[in-house]
Amino acid sequence: MHILDIFRTSTSTCSFEFFPPKTENAASSLYDTLRSLERVAPSFVSVTYGAGGSSRQLTHNLVARIHQAATLTAVPHLTCIAHAESDVHEILGRYAELGVSNILALGGDVPTDRASYDRSRDAFRYATDLVRFIQRFNAGRSHPDTRGFGVGVAGYPEGHPATPNRLAEMDFLKAKVDAGADYICTQLFFDNRDFHDFCERCELARIHVPIIAGIMPITSIAGMRRMAQLAGGARFPAALLRAVERASHDAAGVERVGIEWATQQCRELLDARVRGIHFYTLNQSKATLAVYDELCAWRPSPFGLRHPKPTRS
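^ that's the sequence the OP posted. Answer follows.
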């Protein structure tokens, strides 16, 4: 099932992001998280891909396990850096054999241990190149679904960290859509005004694909500081910082502030008829489930008409 098919049957989608575990204990914890989140019946779940493909096999293994469980639609991330065309063709072929129907195509990051890596050797300089390659793969009909893979791409409501020129940023995003992207999933943000402005700029750029909003509940001050250190950082509204500061003596209080802030963001976005909300879970279920339950208390079936769960033959 393509993500576009889900959009056609859902008022608004609900999805989660996970990263592949590196140890048996981490894997056991993640599978517990997945089981706890199944009751939400998410529209799909995405699985990250380490910088430069460092988690290639781990990503594939987690996607395979999720896909074969027959209760969740898995969307693997795929990035450009340090990949030849043959690498990506092999990866796509393996996913096609599994019956995975969607890819999130990203530029990706240079691995921290290869900071001086020469990108001129890469077959794909930008996510646009990767989207085009996936569409060429689709044209070869190497997928059991004759439509091939559905393709998602990233958007940055606060601005792309590598593109200070906001006009050029929208040109690059439109190029990804014109190359064959079906939808946009945004990086996390904490001020809905940034998201609404981003959507308006997409409209002005004649980008008309569905846009999914990325939400991450703050669960600790340390976690908030890590978010601020990510590539491009994250903007924290003063009102949020004040609330966190007032609760800073109480770890549980900080988590409550984060959950309440994310819940209010989601309420406002759903009232504005956002096409989807994508929760960055950090492989934990507690905060995400708390937000979801708050939304259900606010409005039964907050995400509207849901799609049927996928079935496997």
